[in-house]
Amino acid sequence: MPPTPGAEPPRILEPFVGVVAGGNHVAILVDAAETEGAFDVVEVLAHPGGGPPPHRHAFEEWFRVLEGTLTFTGLRDGSIVPIAEVGPGRVVVVPPGSWHGTVNQTTSPVRVVVVGRPGVMSRYFRQASVAVASMTAPPDREPPAPAALKQLAEQHGIEFWRPGAGAPRGS
């Protein structure tokens, strides 16, 4: 018999926190395992100069900047270029399959919450990062570089940009 709605008490979960290539801290706030893969939610602390290489994937993402200004990149005329500077409270939606990236081009940290649907980010970040105790703790070793993550990224449907990669999937 399924539980009666409201019969289960709230659960308190400790987020996984890790440091990825480029030094950004990532906290998994809602793991895809908690939502049966429907979605996941991460918080990113992007340090100056930090951000993932341009990439694309089959899941949709919603970014909400909490603090600072984040530069979003996208594909234009066969090249990845800056397309928007996004400040606190603004939301950016990245459709599935869209080439994109983010970079903190400021001198201060940027905080952003990212929702992915379906949930793929949480599994990838657990494997691609070095676990740390908090969003400000340094890692005890360097996280894997993007070149070392190619196979892991492919397992999660993530493709890193390379010149000439602008053709739609399957073409």
Strand tally is: 12
The proportion of strand residues reads: 35-45%
Structural class: mainly beta
Radius of gyration of CA atoms, rounded to a whole number: 17 Å
Helix content: under 10%
Please outline the major beta sheet. 7 strands, antiparallel
Order of strands across the biggest sheet? 8-5-10-3-2-1-11
In short:
By secondary structure, the chain is mainly beta. It is 8% helix and 37% strand.
Question: Could you describe the 3D structure shown?
Answer:
With 171 residues, this protein is mainly β. 8% of the residues lie in helices and 37% in strands. It has helices at residues 121-128, 150-155, and strands at residues 16-19, 25-30, 40-46, 55-57, 60-67, 70-76, 79-86, 91-94, 100-103, 110-117, 130-131, 158-160. The chain has a seven-stranded antiparallel beta sheet with strand order 8-5-10-3-2-1-11, covered by helices on one side. It has a three-stranded antiparallel beta sheet with strand order 7-6-9, with no helix packed on it. The longest helix has 8 residues, at 121-128. The radius of gyration is 17 Å and the shape is globular. The protein starts with 15 loop residues before the first strand and ends in an 11-residue tail after the last strand.
Task: Describe this protein with a few key phrases.
2 helices, 171 residues, mainly beta, seven-stranded antiparallel beta sheet, single chain, three-stranded antiparallel beta sheet
List the helices and strands and how they pair.
Elements: E1 16-19, E2 25-30, E3 40-46, E4 55-57, E5 60-67, E6 70-76, E7 79-86, E8 91-94, E9 100-103, E10 110-117, H1 121-128, E11 130-131, H2 150-155, E12 158-160
